[in-house]
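Retry 2 of 3 after timeout on previous attempt. Resubmitting structure tokens to design endpoint.
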């Protein structure tokens, strides 16, 4: 990500130790973050209903209102659109061509994705 927390088109693969970080973080993530059985069941049910295959989709979660509580009016429609598109671009960049599971605390962001998908003739499979 760049200084604006936007997708940097030149990924960190050129940094010394990046490959080792990717290997370590992958294993570390799945070791430390295991859902409780009821949550795991909800996730499995959602994945099955959305036809998502583990390892064959990307996920993007945009928290539009994180840290601003009762000041949601600060997030403009334009900012929602920009940040939502960036979240989708990041997910698509990581796993090109695979479906994207998108979630947000903003109905505006979710509506933007739906509108974008209809306008772009489902160029990307977003759920």
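Retry 2 succeeded. Sequence:
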């Amino acid at each position: 990500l760049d200084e604006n927390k936007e997708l940097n088109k030149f990924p960190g693969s050129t940094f010394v130790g990046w490959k080792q970080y990717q290997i370590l973080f992958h294993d570390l993530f799945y070791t430390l973050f295991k859902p409780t059985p009821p949550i795991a069941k909800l996730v499995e049910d959602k994945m099955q209903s959305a036809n998502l295959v583990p390892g064959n989709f990307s996920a993007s979660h945009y928290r539009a209102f994180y840290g601003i509580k009762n000041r949601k009016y600060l997030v403009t429609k334009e900012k929602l659109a920009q940040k939502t598109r960036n979240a989708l671009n990041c997910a698509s960049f990581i796993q090109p061509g695979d479906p994207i599971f998108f979630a947000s605390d903003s109905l505006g962001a979710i509506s933007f994705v739906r509108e974008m998908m209809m306008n772009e003739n489902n160029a990307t499979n977003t759920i």
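Attempt log closed. DSSP finds four helices and two strands in the chain.
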